[in-house]
Write a structure and sequence with these properties.
21 helices; 3 domains; 3-stranded mixed β-sheet; CBS-domain; about 450 residues; MgtE N-terminal fold; mainly alpha; Tetracycline Repressor, domain 2; homodimer
């Protein structure tokens, strides 16, 4: 939602009877209603409540609801939305509906929405509201105030800043409503405005936009084109949704699947299975290499079956340490805390962490084998050598995990792939296969001449 | 940062020479500077730049910087911060510094900060700014305007709304600066204000606060106590940081570690190893059960070594499907999309998804064994039975993974644990151990009388 809305749910002062359906009631059960029930519920809401509900829906819910309304209702409700929300709605509607939706708008809104549709939904241009208050630098403050008063009376939205543009629409500065409110008088806008603004180019991706908002704590950032002409404003309230969405996508990618684009329970069963099953199959194909690797050690296993017992323990330790490292590095990259040039600092840290943590696990593992042997003597007379093999392998496998998990995101980013969506499968496969090789190599060396 | 800052980086109109250090320059290299270098850099910045830098730092960076300044500088800079930021700073300072920092404030700020320190940092009361504009309901609009003009001239912050309170400090409604700006005249504030506000109780946790902002698209929400008395305002620009932080914490927990409370490269090595190593050791202890489980099947492995080859493949498939399901459900819980009462809907979906995806992997696995056998005949004459064991186990293990991954977050939430931090270890251990049991049970049944 691009237009800052004040802290109220209802614009009316009409008292609401206790038994009347409110937007909050309907939202509460929204996710479990069928589309028909949603439309019905929406239609019985009092007008202000319906409006509140409309503004609180996510883009995908909003689109479904608007498309399910009668044409006459559709026109009424769509015209209440700000242009950037209409553009989002049209972008997520089926191609054959788009012309019709555009046709419901008045001339000005249609023009604005068409301009926004030229941007991708996930860049600054697609997030911005093209409606904002503009003033000329040579107006006096009094002139600006009386002009903005007129504008505010006509316009639906609220605004807190007026942007100062020259004749070529180039952005010169900004003046806050508060400053106008306080100052007054016949100084010119140019004298009172603030300069040196943070601006966004139209095609800055939304991850970066949200990072800039988080870093600068600004509430509104103007969007300009390559020539410095102002195109619109992105406000911080839009960014909260962006940050939530981006985080959800990243989390789902870390969980080893494609991002769902919609809430879990609202995603169709087959769509969900496709997005999860695809990645699961890729991981499975990668993991098949473990069967190939294991078959190289068939002889060793036949001679010392005991070695097989520790396979799951050892490869899961490598996998866990690898997923810790890749999660940390990918998230830090997404937040801009780690850049490509930091690769050697990360490498140093991960070697150190792998060594320390691998050493810790080795100690636990060694102790486990020795203690067990005292109670249930199943590891045979060479149990100390078995314990040593397990311990040494753990150091190697955990270090391999942290280093691979830490470096792979750099490699993927360097070649232009998205680290978040590709690291998990690669790390899992590489670390599991390498873990087996490390384990059996170490065991062969340690047990040579005794058990092998 | 609680005070909405307008879209400018520099408040001054002084032209900046090209070679002068700016806040942006310093921020760029901030993470790689030592604390001494940070202080030095901060001190050579022009005053407005230093101010911009200060406002852009995260709470932990801000605290370190302020504590490293000379006492006289400290007093100057801390007094520029809004009370909620000062409270955060004090909360993250060592206990012995806190009195001293409070002593640097003027009487009014000290009073406000003390009130805020009574709240936990991660609830609405700890996020709010106690300074806001308040008006009485029976003022005329003209009176309110002239009162607010005076207030705006004195105060450092900006504000977009004035809150209407009665004599008991109870919140009656809100009026926007824009409305005052447009209306004027001698209507009373009561007639012009908007009612039916969304409010927050002081102790609402910050996850829920950010959810309410995301759902309602409000820019500011007043905080009230149990009696409806207004305590402060939470603004949306603070929430962007909260959402980022919460997402990072959740992602790190999903990655199988404790949340680092600071950026990756800024976290001390030993602190990081502690937070990762602790969880890694817990996972390792859990995974030790796999060695115990495997030892029960030592005889089967000795007789049919070939069974061991598929162990990593099968348990990793269970682990991957389990981590997909738990990631989806936990994130959906965090966003409020899934509640405890949805448990049966989730169960149905996950049984279906597990069956479909397990079936897909079974098909791939079966084909793999059969095709390999034609090229490298290493699986012996009973290869079709081996392929059948692998395929049937995959269906069972993947279904077990999705169901466990989908349900465990409900169980953990029900008993009051945080699903995000506890699911990964539990799911991994349960699914790996159960996967081994399923695999060897299926294989024993299928291969009975032939290979076993």
């Amino acid at each position: 939602m691009a237009v800052g809305k004040p802290g109220m749910r209802r614009a009316s002062e009409r008292p609401i009877p206790d038994d009347e359906l409110t937007a909050a009631d309907l939202r509460e059960i929204w996710s479990i209603l069928s589309l028909d029930e949603k439309v019905q519920g929406f239609r019985v809401l009092p007008r202000e409540e319906a409006e509140a509900l409309l503004f609180s829906l996510t883009n995908s819910d909003l689109t479904k609801l608007v498309l399910a309304l009668k044409p006459s209702d559709r026109r009424y409700w769509i015209r209440l939305l700000p242009p950037d929300d209409i553009a989002d709605l049209i972008q997520s509607s089926p191609a054959e509906e788009r012309e019709g939706l555009l046709g419901l708008l008045d001339e000005r809104a249609r023009h604005e929405v068409n301009a926004l549709l030229a941007y991708s939904e996930d860049e600054a241009g697609g997030l911005m509201n093209p409606r904002y208050a503009r003033v000329r630098p040579d107006m006096t403050i009094d002139e600006a105030v009386s002009y903005l008063r007129k504008l505010a009376r006509q316009s639906l939205g609220t605004f807190s800043y007026a942007y100062v543009l020259d004749e070529q629409q180039k952005l010169l500065g900004v003046i806050s409503l508060r400053e106008l409110f306080v100052s007054g008088g016949d100084r010119t806008v140019r004298d009172a405005m603030q300069t040196g603004l943070v601006t966004l180019q139209e095609d800055v991706p939304q991850e970066q936009v949200s990072r800039i908002f988080a870093e600068t704590d600004l509430v509104a950032i103007p969007v300009v084109d390559a020539e410095g002409r102002m195109k619109g404003v992105v406000t911080v309230d839009d960014i909260v949704d962006v940050v939530q969405e981006e985080a959800t996508e990243d989390i789902q990618k870390f969980g080893g699947m494609e991002a769902l684009d919609a809430p879990y329970l609202a995603t169709g069963f087959f769509e969900m299975v496709k997005k999860r099953g695809g990645v699961l199959a890729v991981l499975f194909l990668g993991e098949m290499l473990t069967a190939t690797a294991m078959s190289h050690y068939e002889d060793e296993i036949a001679r010392a079956v005991i070695l097989a017992l520790f396979v799951p323990l050892i490869i899961s330790s490598g996998g866990n340490s690898g997923s810790q490292a890749s999660t940390l590095v990918i998230r830090a990259m997404a937040l801009g805390e780690v850049e490509l040039r930091d690769v050697f600092r990360v490498l140093r840290r991960e070697i150190g962490a792998g060594f320390a943590m691998g050493g810790g696990l080795a100690l636990i593992g060694f102790t486990r084998v020795v203690v067990w042997q005292q109670i249930w003597p199943i590891y045979g007379k060479h149990y100390l050598l078995v314990a040593t093999s397990v311990a040494l392998s753990l150091v190697g496998v955990v270090m391999f995990g942290t280093v691979t998990g830490g470096l792979l995101p750099f490699v993927l980013k360097r070649v232009g792939l998205d680290p978040a969506s590709s690291s998990a499968p690669f790390v899992a496969t590489i670390v599991d296969v390498a873990g087996l090789v490390i384990y059996f190599t170490v065991a062969s060396a340690v047990l040579h001449g005794t058990m092998l």
